[in-house]
Amino acid sequence: MGKALIIGAGGVASVVVHKCCQNPDVFEEICIASRTVSKCEALKQGLDGGKTKIQTAQVDANNVPELVALIKKFQPDIVINVALPYQDLTIMDACLETKVDYVDTANYEPEDTAKFEYKWQWAYRERFKEAGITALLGSGFDPGVTGVFSAYAQKHYFDTISQIDILDANAGDHGYPFATNFNPEINIREVTAKGSYYDNGKFIETDPMSIKQVYNFPQIGPKDIYLLHHEEMESLALNIKGIKKIRFWMTFSQKYLTHLEVLQNVGMTSIEPINFEGKQIVPLQFLKAVLPDPASLGPRTKGKTNIGCIFQGEKDGKPVTYYVYNVCDHEECYKEVGSQAVSYTTGVPAMIGAEMVLTGKWKKPGVYNIEEFDPDPFMDALNRFGLPWHESFVPELVK
Ligand code: NDP
Question: Membrane-spanning residues where (predicted)?
């Protein structure tokens, strides 16, 4: 069927590569390209010899001419961006110049401002439309599957959805006193930022980690959940007609929060450069360098994740509640692809999103968030590629 250029060679990219290789009729050829080519080579070595042909390349994804040259050389049908959010715009620029479709898992964030918003990527809408190419934004789990779940609930069970609670639980234990499950810099920027929720047409800001509840998750049990700002709320507020309230909740253990508080208090989570022995360093980037690499957590992590959405609204004048979620086991993921569940739950939807565009099911010139497409083929693919979902019409609600 086609060729995909995968940019990045970290935890999520590793899962994308494994999953493309499990789907060789769609992904006949892939090129893994990243800043550190040895990581691309290591991924290739682990999977070479199957039906999907694998190439590797070195690329600085901040550099548009380098990206354009690589795209012209490899001639992919789609670019899967699983590098960092800082590279979204340069990769989109290169796709525009070469007229190649684009998929990512996280929205653009300027490196010097911890504020992620869709406005930068939505500004590419007209240019992608004119070029006749598709950009699918946010095809991970959250954002990603949470948007697909929302479109599915809207299509099959509701006339109007008035409230969405997105619940992201990780009950995994990696045995380290403190480590993050995906890129530490991105993760810590996200959790130390102000929280927010959508309420009747506007976003209400909250102090970081200031709203806490306990939720009893299916297959995991009761966990502390904290209200966070999360990027899919911005697009869901526009794309789910009649929506009044959206909240995003994530679990954190007391141990994680205590470490984070100390790191914050001593200034280690700051993104303001400081002068250290004559050299400018960013404390958060230094912290990332001393923390365990998320890709190394795979063999040590035990337990499960549960990510899903609870919808409240109406169908035929009657109230409806609907909970749809996936439960993923860290050890099972590691057995299958050599990564823990946080990378797995992001990498599988990235591959599926690319398949949707490559096979023409979601091919539509322009820049789109995932909930703007027909959810049914994606929901079906989740079941086939390792992220089966469960549903309940009588869930416990978040207070
Ligand atoms: P990692 O840090 O493990 O991997 C990032 C990769 O990008 C590394 O291989 C890195 O190279 C490469 N990279 C960074 N900068 C450049 C550059 N300038 N040029 C080329 N390559 C570069 O991150 P993860 O795999 O954990 O996360 C990948 C993406 O997935 C992130 O955008 C993250 O926000 C997103 N994500 C989305 C989730 C979702 O549910 N939607 C959940 C989790 C993550 P090097 O090895 O040299 O550092």
Answer: none
Q: Is 107 a pocket residue for ligand 1 (Cβ < 6 Å)?
A: no
Same domain, 126 and 190: no
Q: Provide the number of structural domains found in the chain.
A: 2
ipTM: 0.99
| Nearest atom, ligand 1, residue 85 CA | 32
What does the pLDDT look like over 236-262, one tens digit per residue? 999 999 999 999 999 999 999 999 999
Mean pLDDT score, 155-159: 98
CA–CA distance, 96 with 93 (Å, rounded to integer): 5
**Is residue 106 lining ligand 1, measured as CB closer than 6 Å?**
yes
Output the CA 58–ligand 1 centroid distance in Å.
15
Whether residue 99 lies inside any domain: the answer is: yes
Residue 86 to residues 28, 90, 107, Cα–Cα distance (Å) = 29, 9, 9
How far is the centre of ligand 1, averaged over its atoms, from the C-alpha of 8 (Å)?
6
pLDDT at position 128: 98
State which ligand 1 atom lies nearest to the alpha carbon of 13.
Answer: 25
Whether residue 11 lies inside any domain: the answer is yes
Q: HSE of 339 in the Cβ direction (CA atoms, 13 Å)?
A: 27
pLDDT of residue 194: 93
Check residue 97 and give its pLDDT: 98
**Does some domain include residue 357?**
no
Lookup result for tokens 């039906």 = 51
Q: Residue whose CA is closest, atom 44 of ligand 1?
A: 182
Angle value at C-alpha 209, between 161 and 342, nearest 5 degrees: 70
296 Cβ inside 6 Å of ligand 1: no
Is the predicted pLDDT of residue 114 greater than 80, yes or no?
Answer: no
